[in-house]
Design brief:
InterPro entries: 4Fe4S_Fe-S-bd, 4Fe4S_Fe_S_CS, 7Fe_ferredoxin, Fd_C, FdxA, RnfB_subfamily. With 106 residues, the protein is α+β, with helices and mostly antiparallel strands. The chain has a single domain (2-82), classed as Alpha-Beta Plaits (2-Layer Sandwich), CATH 3.30.70.20. It has helices at 15-19, 66-77, 91-94, and strands spanning 2-4, 25-27, 32-34, 54-56. A hairpin with a 4-residue loop joins strand 2 (25-27) and strand 3. The two termini are 21 Å apart. The model has no long low-confidence stretch (mean pLDDT 98). The chain binds iron/sulfur cluster and FE3-S4 cluster.
């Protein structure tokens, strides 16, 4: 499966959700999560993310491993998103900021 990692938090550009052929993105207040049971590993979402927040599970950057479980858990509780929405208001400011996990709203 592919995994949305920390840099999505507070950005939520949503460009990823539009291109997913199997609608496996789920939307929370300030993060999107991929349903690992639906993702077909097509790679289409990776280049779309302005925050470069999406990785195959085998290539998660150091410190981002916990997002594998987190995506699975959050995707269960959140509705599907398959359209482009406005990014969060300060997305460009938050893009690349350290330590965003503490701001994740579930
Ligand atoms: Fe969807 Fe493909 Fe990205 Fe998986 S890799 S989340 S199937 S666009
Ligand atoms: Fe998040 Fe990037 Fe998608 S910031 S909403 S993973 S386009």
């Amino acid at each position: 499966t592919y995994v949305v990692t920390e840099n999505c938090i507070q950005c939520k550009y949503t460009d990823c959700a539009v291109v997913c052929p199997v609608d496996c993105f789920h939307e929370g207040p300030n993060f999107l999560a991929i349903d690992p049971d639906e993702c077909i590993d097509c790679d289409a979402c990776v280049p779309e993310c302005p925050a470069e927040a999406i990785f195959p599970e085998a290539e998660l950057p150091p410190g981002q491993e916990k997002f594998l479980e987190l995506n699975a858990e959050l995707a269960k509780n959140w509705p599907v998103i398959n359209v482009k929405k406005d990014a969060l208001p300060d997305a460009d400011k938050w893009n690349g900021a350290e330590g965003k996990l503490q701001y994740l709203k579930k």
